[in-house]
Specification:
heterotrimer; A mainly alpha (488); B alpha+beta (195); C mainly alpha (417); A: 488 residues; mainly alpha; Formate dehydrogenase/DMSO reductase fold; 0% strand; C: 417 residues; 18 helices; globular
Chain lengths: 488, 195, 417
Amino acid sequence: MKTSPRAGEPRTPTLPQDETFDLIGPGHSLGSVTDKIGDVVLKDRLRPGWLIFLAFSLAGLATLGMAVLMVILRGPGVWGNNIPVAWAFDIINFVWWIGIGHAGTLISAILLLVHQNWRTSINRFAEAMTIFAVMCAGIYPAMHIGRHQYFYWLMPLPNTMGLWPQFRSPLDWDFFAVSTYFTVSALFWYVGLVPDLATLRDRATSRTLKVLYGIFAMGWRGSAQHWHRYMALYVILAGISTPLVLSVHSTISFDFAVGVVPGWHTTIFPPYFVAGAVFAGFAMVILLAVPLRAVFGLKDLITMKHLENSGKIMLATGLIVTYGYAMEVFTAWYSGNIYEQFMALNRAFGPYGWSYWALIFCNALAPQLLWFKSVRTSIPWLLIISVIVSIGMWLERFVIIVVSLHRDYLPSSWGLYAPTVWDWAFYAGTFGLFLTLFLLFVRALPSIAMAEMRELVHHEEHQKHGDHSAHSSQTSKVEPGASELASV
Amino acid sequence: MDAGTSELSASALVPTTEVAPKIYGVVAEFDNSDALLAAARLAREAGYTKMDAFTPMPIEGLSEVLNFRDKFVPTLMLLGGLTGCTAGYFMQYFAAVHSYPINVGGKPFHSWPQQIVITFEMTILFAALTGVIGMFLLNGLPRPYHSIFNTPNFEAASVDRFFLAIESRDPKFNREDTRQFMQGLGAARVSEVEE
Amino acid sequence: MADTLNTQQDGTQNINLSDLVGPQLDRLQKVALVAGVAGVAAMALGAVLDPADFFISYLFAFMFWLGVTTGSLGWLMIGHVTGGGWAFILRRPLEAATRNLPIAFAMFVPILFGMGALYGGHHGWNRPYEELDTILRHKNAYLNVPFFIARAVFYFLVWGALAFFMNKWSRIHDERDDPAVAVRLNNWSAGGLLIFVLTMTFAAFDWMMSLEPHWFSSLFGVIIIVGQGLSTLALMTILIARLAGHTPFLQSLQEANPRYFRDLGNLTLAFTLLWAYTNFSQYMIYWSGNIAEEVEWFVHRARGGWGLVSMFLIVAHFALPFLFLLSSTMKVKINNLARLAVFILFMRFVDLWWYVVPTFRHELTLHWLDIACPIGLGGIWLWAWAHQLKGKLAVPVHDPRLRDSWPLKLEGVAHHG
């Protein structure tokens, strides 16, 4: 994207002393990156910042417990869902959380395939973010079905009634897509973790920790043969995760687009949902990365370059989403279909018109600030825009789901929707779950991939020494992997 | 592992009277990857075949030098993916056409456009599962104990040191010669490692 | 180290495309000119004998050759934004293709004479207002001849301006190594991409989607743009391989930087997947919704033998190239990739043919003009493209992203070249 607002200006705005535009701060060696990341897990004291966050998250988690209990005891009637708005907060939040997860897969898989080294120090926690976000998302449909004890009926299990799930229903596609996504993300994450768990096993001083990390490291010993197969697997996993992540949000868009509700039934939905997911996901990456690097002093590993690049991706995906809005409005008019036209007008000027204009502001206008390098390299601005984008993408799902449903074809079946306190409690509660898991993760596991950081240091050292003869044909650390992928 | 080791060493070396502990091999420690790569190349040229290297991260070109070229993992994943693809499609076909045909929205029982998503997801799921399980099993993991862990300073193999092992099962292995050979490679330390 | 770098850089700076592939370019021009003249003569004959069928064939041929022109503009701007090995190899051929925009505009002009045949007709929008049904009357605010022409002129002006500045700044950057120019190229490309995607979307709506004016699809613009991206990649791969595949220059470049060429294969793979993804999404959503005005378009492409072409597209435009592109041998050698690219290019023609023709001919028919038009327009296009390429430098010598890796890896090229 743009590197500076006007050509010819100095390309680098002044940065604070401890910030850098390099991929990694100066003076790092194989040992020092390992120490720095490993010590957060093994040696760090309990930091007040971490404890404060944890206290808030636990409060959120308790809220979630109450909200879930309420739904189980009293049924989904405690929510504001009604007819015609039978899908509301539960599905909005489900889609929102799943979307958040997509940035993690994009960073870990797609950026690996396109040789973007800068993914290295953010992929681990972004993948963790994916897994936790999908967990949060999964709770919503599980609670929405009402008879929670039968959720396993979504799976194709032979049974005495000779019944099968309705495979032609997008809701069942959704089940397959989300559970595959969760499984593959978790596997990808774990495979990436194994060498790091071995490092922790080798460095832990307490016997208990040694055994604990040792069990999960499975006896990894860094043998060349192991690495050979490991890299083959890792890159192919990245290769198959890429279409997978496209398919997941596309499938979620089919939940809507396959139906004939005006506002749902439009062909731009699949790619536009995917872009929106990545858009919100990168906002969440920034929101997590900034406190993470501040609290644990990782500014030289998660550098300004990572934040700036995340800002660029937010800008690009934000533009795609805006293109989607433009196409929706134009097609609604162009279709000549009165229901489509009414849908577009109702969105902007109906009872929920505020949500549409807020959405346009949050997703289409505010991110335009990211054209300026000074905004992309200012942490306060990045945080503000990320919060705005997160809200905007939530509003987008609100507009799609609630606003489309509340007035569809027959005016006699129109209605209004208002969330109840339990809707809000549930939403706040999933934040509690997400943050609790994330905070425990940063203390229990290395939040930056140590083995990959060592590769990066190794690679940078070789470049610095001008050792081009040895590496001329192998310019990137992902190169062996790329050839493995190619050999499938 | 141990077969032949004693005879070989007995013929070439001053025989020791005490019962020597069986050894896994001779292990050299290097402080950078280039030294390791060069050493591995020399060892291969010297005719050693049963070698392994231990590094804190994947090193480009190392598996080629050590002659690890198998393509099991990609092949397994391809087979897994094909299985998932076929199983996914025919599971739906069977349920919708044979086992419980039901008219939904006037669509044909065999609605292939609506079977694509699940077929695709099953392909990916099966490929990923076979790949991950296959990688661990092929690598002989989980394996809590391995002789290489007896190497001095081996904890650093997962941080910033690079190890090259010539195993005792190598036909050319000879405790004394191999050690001398390894010492000539510029290693920071060479040690004999017990089983 | 520094000395070798400088001398080699000086050596490579003088690599001129005419020196490198001059004879090949001459031969291409000759063949293209013959094909172009013969094709245009056939087209002229067809236009007189069978004007209605002529315009149908002409439109799909035009959409292809316009697509590789604007597709080149798109790839050029993406290259300026993201950098990467593929952008380095493709830079000159893409720039030459964007300079063909005036030719593409000239190719557009005949369509204005076919407005009746293409957009009038029994169901078209280009009829007197009284004859239109309610929906088409509603659309008349957008779909009317003066506005249609004004929009077309506007699109070409916008694309022309983008192409002009991209070429101009690139030339300046070759002359003097000024980082500010590189920054400007980068910035304008980011904004330019946005403008390009929007204008191309509406151009696709105007020229292709409005052939069946009741039908609409919000994804249509994306599908057409993805198709253009794939056509351009395939055509450029073929041209590079055919022109330079056996020169020592390209061979040593390929040896030194296999990744550059693998990038080309991976991009082709990605766009093959994107083509399938977007087309499947559009089909699945409308097939499931099953609303009369939305499925009409697909009914035309499922009945009267066209269903076979649809199936053929799934197999040959998606499945076969996809399987071939998974293998590394396909991607590492540009000559292998080029063989596949010929097939992909053929399928791009079939795809556009399938997008345009069934609207008019409800029975599967291949008119002889369906073959003559692409050849005629293609001959002219390629002749002009080769002309644009002559005398230009082979590579962007001051590309900031490649300064570290570029000259060093081409040891020995100076003697060969």
